[in-house]
């Protein structure tokens, strides 16, 4: 599906209304493809009203929402999947958690399996979103 930024936010809102916990969402794509923008829109649609910053430097941002916990990971800077162990995901991920992972390929073998993968591709000012499995929206 080809979308602009406002349409991408609407897609995130649709996804927010359909996911059930626990849920693991992988976001794949090049730098600047819209992964963090999508994660921010998803968090807003889930009811987070505070700042949503990119977890690129801290690797992990944690959000406690009324209905769930959200872990937002950006693995761009890690060199080895084993580095994920130091994030303490086993202690943070439970039956009431949404885990959003940017650059999941860098954590191959160290992350829980995904419930959905969204691939982001630049198409000029638009973004092409490809969903696997194509369940939502």
The arrangement of helices and strands along the chain is EHEHEEHEEE
Q: In oligomeric terms, what are we looking at?
A: single chain
Low-confidence stretches: none
Largest sheet: 7 strands, mixed
DSSP strand tally: 7
What is the structure about, briefly put?
With 137 residues, this protein is an alpha/beta fold.
Structure description:
With 137 residues, this protein is of the alpha/beta class. 21% of the residues lie in helices and 30% in strands. It contains three helices and seven strands; from the N terminus they run βαβαββαβββ. The chain has helices at residues 5-18, 35-45, 89-92; strands spanning 2-3, 23-29, 60-64, 69-74, 97-102, 116-123, 126-132. A seven-stranded mixed β-sheet has the order 1-7-6-2-5-4-3. Helix 3 links the parallel strand 4 (69-74) and strand 5. Helix 1 packs across helix 2. The N and C termini lie close together (10 Å).
Features:
3 helices, Rossmann fold, alpha/beta, globular, about 140 residues, 7-stranded mixed beta sheet, 7 strands
Question: Would you spell out the secondary-structure blueprint of this structure?
Answer:
Blueprint: E1 2-3, H1 5-18, E2 23-29, H2 35-45, E3 60-64, E4 69-74, H3 89-92, E5 97-102, E6 116-123, E7 126-132
Parallel strand pairs: 2-5, 2-6, 4-5
Antiparallel strand pairs: 1-7, 3-4, 6-7
């Amino acid at each position: 599906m080809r979308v602009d930024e406002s349409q991408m936010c609407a897609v995130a809102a649709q996804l927010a209304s359909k996911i059930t916990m626990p849920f693991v969402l992988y976001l794949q794509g090049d730098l600047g493809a819209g992964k963090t923008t999508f994660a921010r829109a998803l968090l807003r649609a889930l009811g987070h009203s505070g700042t949503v910053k990119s977890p690129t430097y801290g690797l992990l941002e944690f959000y406690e929402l009324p209905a769930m916990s959200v872990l937002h990971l950006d693995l761009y800077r890690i060199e080895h999947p084993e580095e994920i162990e130091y994030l303490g995901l086993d202690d943070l991920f439970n039956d009431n958690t949404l885990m959003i992972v940017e650059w999941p390929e860098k954590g191959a073998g160290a992350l829980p399996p995904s419930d959905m993968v969204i691939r982001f591709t630049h198409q000029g000012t638009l973004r092409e979103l490809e969903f696997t499995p194509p369940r939502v929206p």
